[in-house]
């Protein structure tokens, strides 16, 4: 199957991989544990739980930088 | 072919999945719209099951092959499976595959025949005779006459008939092979030695005994078996290049278990498929189930550079660019010493090196680079 490079370098639909999620939650939980202001109203005490909820609601001011081609996603229109 | 093909062809699903879907569609006789919906759902499930970037695919493959590998019997297991031919199996065979041995311990071929030869036993026999190496001792008695300094060959009529040879052909072949005159008298072949030397006589006798009269030298034995409708030849010994050229052989359906030979004759893609097929069948024979994808990764690592490399010191592991990664595998002192003498540098870009120096590795969570999201 021949895929032309220009066509193949389509951006990945932006959804975090489980590694990225873990890394973001981890970084945010560390900030919260060290006293950073929490961005949500919650009863939770565990910084990890708080970070998880923040990510769910899309409020964490952290994202990932993707630099490599490993995130190229092949649409089926690219393959046929 | 069928109406389901153009639905399926729009999706980059693995061919095994496509075939399963097609069979199921045909069984249920579903219409095209429904089929498309089903395929779409399958495609979504397929996407959800793809590996994520950052996953340690190689380590998972290594463990998935290694764990069942521990269950394998160590002993070289010879078995009389297909047609009484000994085949190396189990762990020794798996090691042989991954080491890409140039001469496997039990080379074997499965030869399928062209259409007009496959159904007829006699025609299959004919092809087998063209392939199997025939020596003089298979078809005749050979005696040395020291008094008259000659070698007397007494052909066995029955053996000749079975091998579909004539005395005339044998004579020609010996004349060509030994570059001597052969006399024929009373159905016997006589080779006269001109020099009165016992050594020359014995040398000629030895040469005669090793002369291949018909067939291919490497093919020591051919066995004809009926497989379903057609006759199939199984051979001990392998020479893919020559066998593919033999009249009556279907070259497209002819197999050998010598992977290096496949690489030389048919190229790297064929070699990759051969590695996958051989490894899977070796594991399956032992009753171990390993997903093909793990084996495929190994086969890809072995063939990615366009040449067949073994896994190990002289191949994939030995060609790693990092000194520390190589030293961690085998020949630690040699690798480190050579690197030191040459003043090499290690860029610490791989996994092994970073573990050795105690740094986070670029894998999984360690491969994610965080940046602030400003609003």
Topology readout:
The complex is a heterodimer of chains A (80) and B (375).
Chain A: H1 5-8, H2 18-33, H3 47-56, E1 62-65, H4 76-79
Chain B: H1 3-8, H2 15-28, H3 32-48, H4 57-70, H5 90-99, E1 108-112, H6 115-118, H7 121-131, H8 136-139, E2 140-145, E3 150-155, H9 157-162, H10 167-178, E4 183-185, E5 188-192, H11 198-210, E6 221-227, E7 230-236, H12 240-245, E8 255-256, H13 259-266, H14 268-285, H15 292-303, H16 323-329, H17 332-342, H18 351-357, E9 369-372
Antiparallel strand pairs in B: 1-7, 1-8, 2-3, 3-5, 4-5, 6-7
Summarize this structure as a short list of keywords or feature phrases.
heterodimer, A: 80 residues, mainly alpha, Eukaryotic RPB6 RNA polymerase subunit, 42% helix, globular, disordered N terminus, disordered C terminus, B: 375 residues, alpha+beta, DNA polymerase, domain 1, 4-stranded antiparallel beta sheet, 18 helices, 12% strand, flat
Short structural summary:
The complex is a heterodimer of chains A (80) and B (375). Chain A has 80 residues and is mainly alpha-helical.
Written description of the protein model:
The complex is a heterodimer of chains A (80) and B (375). Chain A is built from 4 helices and 1 strand. Residues 1-13 and 76-80 of chain A have low confidence and may be disordered. Chain A has 80 residues and is mainly alpha-helical. Chain A has one domain (7-79): Eukaryotic RPB6 RNA polymerase subunit (Alpha-Beta Complex). In chain A, helix 2 (18-33) packs across helix 3. Chain B contains 18 helices and 9 strands. By secondary structure, chain B is an alpha+beta fold. Chain B has a 4-stranded antiparallel β-sheet. Chain B has a 4-stranded antiparallel β-sheet with strand order 2-3-5-4. The mean pLDDT of chain B is 83. Chain B has helices at 3-8, 15-28, 32-48, 57-70, 90-99, 115-118, 121-131, 136-139, 157-162, 167-178, 198-210, 240-245, 259-266, 268-285, 292-303, 323-329, 332-342, 351-357; strands at residues 108-112, 140-145, 150-155, 183-185, 188-192, 221-227, 230-236, 255-256, 369-372. Among the domains of chain B are: 5-49, no CATH class; 134-214; 320-367, DNA polymerase, domain 1, CATH 1.10.150.390. Chains A and B meet through helix 2 and strand 1 of A and strand 9 of B.
């Amino acid at each position: 199957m021949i895929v032309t490079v220009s066509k193949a370098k389509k951006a990945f639909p932006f959804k975090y991989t489980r590694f990225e999620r873990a890394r973001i939650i981890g970084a945010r939980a560390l900030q919260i544990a060290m006293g950073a202001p929490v961005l949500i109203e919650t009863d939770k005490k565990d910084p990890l739980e708080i970070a998880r909820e923040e990510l769910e609601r899309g409020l964490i001011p952290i994202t990932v930088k993707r630099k490599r081609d490993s995130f190229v996603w092949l649409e089926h229109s690219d393959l046929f | 072919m069928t109406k389901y093909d153009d639905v399926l062809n729009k999706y980059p699903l693995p061919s095994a999945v496509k075939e399963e879907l097609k069979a199921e569609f045909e069984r249920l006789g579903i219409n095209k719209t429904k089929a498309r919906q089903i395929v779409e759902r399958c495609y979504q499930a397929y996407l959800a099951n793809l590996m994520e970037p950052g996953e340690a695919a190689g380590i998972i493959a290594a463990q998935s092959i290694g764990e069942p590998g521990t269950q394998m019997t160590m002993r070289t297991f010879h078995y009389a499976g297909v047609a009484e031919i000994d085949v190396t199996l189990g762990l020794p065979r798996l090691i042989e595959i991954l080491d890409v041995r140039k001469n496997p311990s039990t080379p074997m071929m499965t030869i399928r025949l062209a259409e007009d030869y496959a159904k007829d036993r006699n025609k299959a026999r004919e092809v087998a005779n063209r392939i199997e190496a025939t020596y003089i001792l298979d078809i005749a008695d050979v005696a040395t006459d020291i008094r008259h300094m000659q070698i007397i060959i007494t052909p066995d009529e029955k053996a000749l008939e079975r091998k579909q040879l004539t005395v005339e052909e044998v004579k020609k072949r010996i004349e060509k092979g030994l570059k001597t005159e052969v006399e024929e008298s009373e159905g016997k072949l006589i080779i006269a030695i001109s020099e009165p030397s016992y050594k020359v006589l014995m040398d000629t006798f030895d040469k005669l005994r090793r002369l291949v009269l018909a067939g291919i030298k490497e093919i020591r034995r051919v066995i004809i078996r009926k497989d379903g409708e057609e006759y199939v030849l199984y051979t001990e010994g392998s020479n893919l290049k020559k066998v593919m050229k033999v009249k009556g052989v279907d070259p497209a359906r002819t197999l050998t278990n010598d992977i290096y030979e496949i690489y030389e004759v048919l190229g790297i893609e064929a070699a990759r498929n051969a590695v996958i097929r051989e490894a899977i069948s070796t594991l399956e024979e032992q009753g171990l189930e390993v997903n093909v994808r793990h084996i495929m990764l190994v086969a890809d690592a072995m063939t990615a550079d366009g040449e067949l490399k073994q896994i190990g010191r002289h191949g994939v592991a030995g060609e790693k660019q990092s000194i520390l990664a190589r030293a961690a595998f085998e020949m630690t002192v040699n690798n480190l010493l050579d690197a030191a003498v040459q003043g090499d540098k290690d860029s610490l870009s791989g996994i092994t090196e970073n573990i050795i120096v105690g740094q986070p590795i670029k894998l999984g969570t360690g491969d994610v680079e965080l940046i602030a999201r400003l609003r």
